[in-house]
Amino acid sequence: ISRTNFMVNNEGVVADFNNCGLFRSVTTTGRVYNLKFDNFKAVGDYGTLGTVAGINLGYIERIEVRNVNFDGVRADYIGGIVGVNGSVDETKDGVYYRYNARVDRCAVVLSFGAENGVSGTIGGVVGMNQAGTVIYSYSVGDVTLQDGVIFGGVVGYNAFATFDTTSEVYG
After folding, report:
1. Among residues 144, 64, 136, which one has the least CA distance to residue 111?
2. Which sign, positive or negative, has the C-alpha torsion 167, 88, 84, 147?
3. Residues 79, 110: contact at Cβ < 8 Å?
4. Distance, CA of 122 to CA of 42 (rounded, Å)
5. Which pLDDT band, with edges at 50, 70 and 90, does 19 fall under?
6. What is the 3-class SS of 88-156, one letter each residue?
7. For residue 39, which of 72, 81, 82, 151 sits 20 to 30 Å off, Cα-Cα?
């Protein structure tokens, strides 16, 4: 999907299933860019949850998300943009291919407190990054966590990936 200055207002998700967001997943050939979300709300139980997608295997670029509300969400991985940003390996006609997901130039403004009952591994931008790329992206907001919640300002859990950054963290 590609729109210039396209705004999604007051979008919400109320469900109990895996891989949830505006899209359940973005495939290896998928691209989502130039979107703005305002007042996104999710309630329920999920495997993975993100404003844009539960799982990203493609490219998500230039997304702005403001006023995210994860009130009472319980999920394995929760991200302001995507729940899981991953990679896929496959062989076609004897040739090996690796497709790496990418989240690029995304911004998230979120806030939630421990009293909201949010649980899982939470990232301001990506819940879990599994050999994908997260670049030039950030999140800001006020967060209070309950016991047992794992939280990262950009990525909640980083698996099979490295960070190369010159950014400063303020807090």
Report:
1. 144
2. negative
3. no
4. 14
5. confident
6. EEEEECCEEEEEECEEECCEEEEEECHHHCCEEEEECCEEEEECCEEECCEEEEEECCCCCCEEECCEE
7. 151
β partners of residue 31: 59
Q: Is 14 or 112 the better-scoring residue by pLDDT?
A: 112
Q: How far apart are CA 98 and CA 125, in angstroms?
A: 23
The DSSP secondary structure of 25-62, one letter per residue, reads: EE-TT-EEEEEEEES-EEEEEEEEEESSEEEESSEEEE
Q: What is the pTM of this model?
A: 0.84
- Nearest CA to 46 out of 143, 155, 132, 119 is that of 119
Beta strands 150-152 and 102-104: pairing type? unpaired
Instruction: Assess contact for 55 and 87: CB atoms under 8 A.
Output: no
pLDDT at 16 over 60: no
| Residue 82 CB neighbour total at 10 angstroms | 37
Question: What value does the CA radius of gyration of the chain take, rounded to a whole number of Å?
Answer: 15
Write the DSSP assignment of 56-93 as a string of letters: ESSEEEEEEEEEEB-TT-EEEEEESSEEEE-EEEEEET
Distance CA 9, CA 15 (A): 19
In the structure encoding, which two tokens stand for residue 37, read together?
A: 């979300």
45-100 tens-digit pLDDT: 788 999 999 999 999 999 999 988 777 777 889 999 999 999 989 898 999 988 99
